[in-house]
């Protein structure tokens, strides 16, 4: 899945690939150039995961607001991130 367009990946797919990249980088088996490419893809995957999580947070907040008629933040969500 290394060639998959990141913006079409689900959160779970992106996270799974990111975990694989981290494992590969930590193993030390990649060359310097491969490591740089893996790091670049990993940064893009992390950014995608962050965006997907933020989108999910906003959706949950909208659901809570609509259901209760008041603005509420679900426990554990940090609006600063």
Walk me through the structure.
The structure is a single chain. The chain has one domain (6-68). It has 2 helices and no strands. It has helices at 11-27, 32-68. The longest helix has 37 residues, at 32-68. The model has no long low-confidence stretch (mean pLDDT 87).
Question: How much strand content do the residues show?
Answer: under 5%
Topology pattern, helix = H, strand = E: HH
C-alpha-based Rg, rounded: 17 Å
* SS summary, helix count: 2
Task: Please supply descriptive tags for the structure shown above.
about 80 residues, mainly alpha, about 0% strand, elongated
SSE blueprint:
Elements: H1 11-27, H2 32-68
Helix pairs in contact: 1-2
TL;DR?
The protein is an all-alpha fold and 81 residues long.
